Structure formats: C-alpha cells, structure tokens
Amino acid sequence: MLSYNFTYELKLLIRNKWLPILGLLLVITFAFAAFNGNSRTQKRIKEITNIETKTELSDANMLKLLDSVEKGLEVKTSFRNIPNTPMAIGYQHPRAVTMTPNGMSAIAIGQSDIFTDVIMPITVDDDFGIDFTEMTSSIQLLFGSFDLTFVIIYLLPLLIIAFSYNILSAEKERGALRLLASQPVSIYKWIFQKMLLRFFWLSQIVIVALVISFLINNIDLAQIQFIWLLGLILVYILFWFSLSFLINLLGSSSAKNAVFLIGLWVFFVLLIPSSINQIAHSIYPIPSRNKMVNTMRTLKVDVSKKQDKVLDHYLRDHPELASKEEDKGNYTFWHKYMASLDLVAQEINPLFSLYDEQLEAQQSWVKKWTWLSPSLVINKEMNRISGNSTADYQNFKNQALAFSKHWRNHLIFMLYNKQPFTTKDYRTLPKFTYKPLKLNGIGKHIVIELILCVLIGLLAVFLFKKRLQKGIAILNN
To answer: Which of 209, 260, 387, 406 is surrounded by the most beta carbons within 10 Å?
Structure first.
C-alpha cells in the first residue's frame, strides 16, 4: 500500500504542479531571505573591519609620534595630542571591542539590528553601559527582518497548511472516500502514509532550497551548525504536518480544516509569543534609561563641586594608587576627574544593576514558557546558531564591560603612579578577544519536539477511533 501511495501521490503532485511550484517558490524565497541576512552580515563585517583598520592606523601614527618624542625630535602638534601620558592614550586611542559574526549569522539577523557589536571604550566615559542602547523604532520592532528564520518560522507553516489541509476532505468531497473505505486498509493509516510522503517531498525541497540559497550567498555548508539547522527545520516541518494529520482525522470539510489550521498558526506563531513577551514586560518592567542618564548628569554636577574631597576619599579606598608624601600636592585635573568618575559609577551602579536584573528576569520568564510554542523554541535555537541571540549580545556586553574596566584601571594605575606612556608600554596594553557562547542543548530541544509530534499523532489516532466507537459517520461528515 505504501508503494502504491508513493507512486500515486507523486503523480498527483506533479499533475497538480504542486512540487515544481512549491520548489521554485521556496528556492526564490530562501535565496532572497539568505541574501538579506548575508547582506546584513557583510555590512557588519565591513564596519568591524573599518574600525579595526582605523585603530591600526591610529596606533601606527601614535607610535611614530611617540618614537619622535622619545628621541627628542621636534613634533608639530599640540601638546595635548602627544601620546606620552596614560590619559592621552585612554582618550584619543581607544581599543576596538568587536563582536565578529560567525559563519551562520546570515540565517537570523536576531538582535544584531537592535544592539551594537562595535564599542570603543575610552577612559572618560560616564558609564560604559550607556552605549548599549536598544533600538526604539516601532516599525522595525514590529516587522523584524526578512531572513531565513522569518521564512521558516512564519511562512513555511502556511505552505505546509496549504499542502496538507484537505488530504481526507478532498477525497470525501470527490466521492472517492467510499471506494477507499472498501479496501482492506484503515483510513488513519492511509492518511498517515500520505502525510508522511508529503512530509518527505517537502523536506527534500526545503533541503535543496536551503543548500542552493547557501551556495548562492557563499555561506559555508561544512560546519556542524548546518546539521543542527537542518534538524531544527525538519522537526518544525514535522510538527505542522502532525497538526494537519490531527485536523484531517477530525473529519471536517476542507474549509473548516483550513480555518482550524490557520487558527493554530495564529495561536502558536503569533498569540503565544506575543502574550509571553507582554506578560514578561508587565511583571518585570525595565527602568527608564532617560532616568539613569539624568541621574548621572546630576551626580556629575554635584561631584564636580567637591573634587578635592572626592579625590581624598578615592585615595583612601585605593591606597595602591596614592603617590609619595612629597608628591601629594601635584595631583592634576585628570586625577580628580577619574576619582569623580569612580564616585559617579558607585552611585549609579544600583540603577544599572536593577536594569540588568529586570532584563535577566524577563529573559528567564520567556525561557521558562518557551516550550508552549514550537515556533518560539525553533526561533530561539536558530538565533543561537546564528550567534545573534539576546544571550549572545548579553555575553558580548559583559565581556566588553569587563574589558573596559580592565583598560581603564590599567591606565589609571599609570596615571596615579605618574608613569609616562612609552612605546614599550604599548605592547602591554590590554587586548580584547570575543569568546562566543557554546552551542549546548539543541539536540535536546529537537528530541523534545519529536516527542511532541509523536504525541500529537497518537492523539489524532485516539480521537479518530473514539469517533468510530461512538458511531460517527466519518464518510458522511
């Protein structure tokens, strides 16, 4: 029976031009989505490369100028631009702190259009965390970006629904179901085989379309992330075929089947994710950044009026930075300014901590209820594969903040010890290297989704047999 169904389904799909139309549609859609994602990735890489190139040129010019000063040569520049002091280096020659996209970044733009992946920390920053500002464009936040994740999460289920919503009802409406019922095969097994075959053909088309889109856009296929991506896509396709199998076995008309499946699409893809997000924002509201900025400015004004006292307190808290007894009267503007920045940071830290705690609580809430929607699970895992998830940018932020603190403390130590900056000191300057998060748990989520698909299939068979036991005339509904 399976071989007969295989031949019959293939002829039917080719005759109805479903396979060629669906194949062409998916290839074009996948290729265009991958192009959009790859364009965004290449733009990010170009921006990072430009920043790193400018930093290298700036360092090269700085070293030439510093070498001339050390050799006693005359330099034609303002004394403020001479890089022989730690604060001149910290202010005029910051390091490039970058988050380089990985090889799969093109599949999901994720948070890359909201958060920055290039930071240039300088020693006179009020607070480095203020650079991590979220995008406030309501239009962009509403529609997102047209990438492969968008196509797979939102559009692919609609194609599956159109491909499978009327497998049983169409036979019934044509009058062919009575002939089928006279054969020695159960209806649910027959539908299962047809669903399985359509799942097979659609999966092949999706894989081919994905490979073609990767090849066209020069995205590397030889990486383990591609295997995980295929697993996520296939299990997501299987989930929607499982729902279609359930709805088909309920025995309604084609129109009702389509309405039910579209309703499930709205429920799983739109309603659950938006509800979880809204509840998270309601339970754990994030403090206003404007309030933090205004508070910081007020603190700066207050601290600037008592810089001498601030410096004394700062040196008592950091005795390793205190100068010798005979040099205590030689503190400059920079000594007082850096001490005042430290006080401002201490005062503003509770607000930033509250912001981070609320954001972490939101993410924990969303993570806790993600399992309610396979769309959320697949979206989250695809963002993780691309390296553009919220967790990835939080990881980058934490690493960047830690480096900024290390960079600032390195130069402050030289400042308070009245140590001039030399070409030898350049080699000891801190360097930033981004360490991406490890990809763990994707296989577990794939297995969970597979189990969910099996449970939906078993539920469909159970309900179908229940209807038969109650004497409901499936053929006449």
So the answer is: 387
